[in-house]
Amino acid sequence: MSLRLGDTAPDFEQDSSIGKIKFHEWAGDSWVVLFSHPADFTPVCTTELGLTAKLKPEFDKRNVKAIALSVDGAEAHKQWIKDIEDTQKTVVGFPIVADTDKKVAGLYDMIHPNQSETATVRSLFVVDPKKKVRLIITYPMSTGRNFDEVLRVIDALQLTDGYTVATPGNWKDGDDVIIPLSVKDEEVIKQKYPKGYTSPRPYLRITPQPNK
């Protein structure tokens, strides 16, 4: 059974590049980016893990932890990390889960048989501090992920958790936002959106981003 948005992210205990990890305990009160890759010592994955490592300051600002996964073993992960750090000129400061028995891959539906019977595809999950799944993105094996987009969506999720707004297409932190259709009372609108709004259509009300 596949995961859906709003589901509780399955807990698991598995070996990793830093030893045994109990997922929910490790996550603590942080947001989490959990992402799988098809195999160690592969070119696209090497660039992806390098990019993730370089984003650590951005993740830290957003209270986000990263954790990767493949069906290879912990010792292979440790050796591959050396290659990633050397070729991508960074430090891998996050764990890589060793899902050799494919337990986590099963819980998160990471193996798509029409892509591979044994390797995990490029699945990515954003999990909030309440352990709820907030974003699911699945890429084919041949296509590296856009981690700028992952940061953008986390920004949007954290903003909309704190304020009654929605974000338009291609929104970036600092851009105008949208007043949801569920907010109708003009007095409530004045209180919630003191910067005012423009309304090119009755259903399209645009207001400056609230201060986070």
Describe this structure in words.
It comes from Herbaspirillum lusitanum. It holds the Pfam family AhpC-TSA. Thiol-specific peroxidase that catalyzes the reduction of hydrogen peroxide and organic hydroperoxides to water and alcohols, respectively. Plays a role in cell protection against oxidative stress by detoxifying peroxides. This protein is α+β, with helices and mostly antiparallel strands and 212 residues long. It is built from 7 helices and 10 strands. The chain has a 5-stranded mixed sheet. α4 (74-88) links the parallel β4 (64-70) and β5 (96-98). α2 crosses α4.
Strand order of the largest sheet: 5-4-3-6-7
Helix content: 25-40%
Provide the low-confidence segments as ranges: none
Instruction: Compute the average pLDDT.
Output: 93
- In total, the number of strands is 10
Please indicate the percent range of residues in DSSP E strands (runs of 2 or more): 15-25%
Q: Helix and strand string, N-terminal first? A: EEHEHHEHEHEEHEHEE
Give the quaternary arrangement of the chains: single chain
Distance between the termini: 37 Å
- The total count of helices amounts to 7
Please compute the radius of gyration using only Cα atoms. 19 Å
Describe the main β-sheet briefly. Answer: 5 strands, mixed
How does the overall form come out from the CA principal axes? elongated
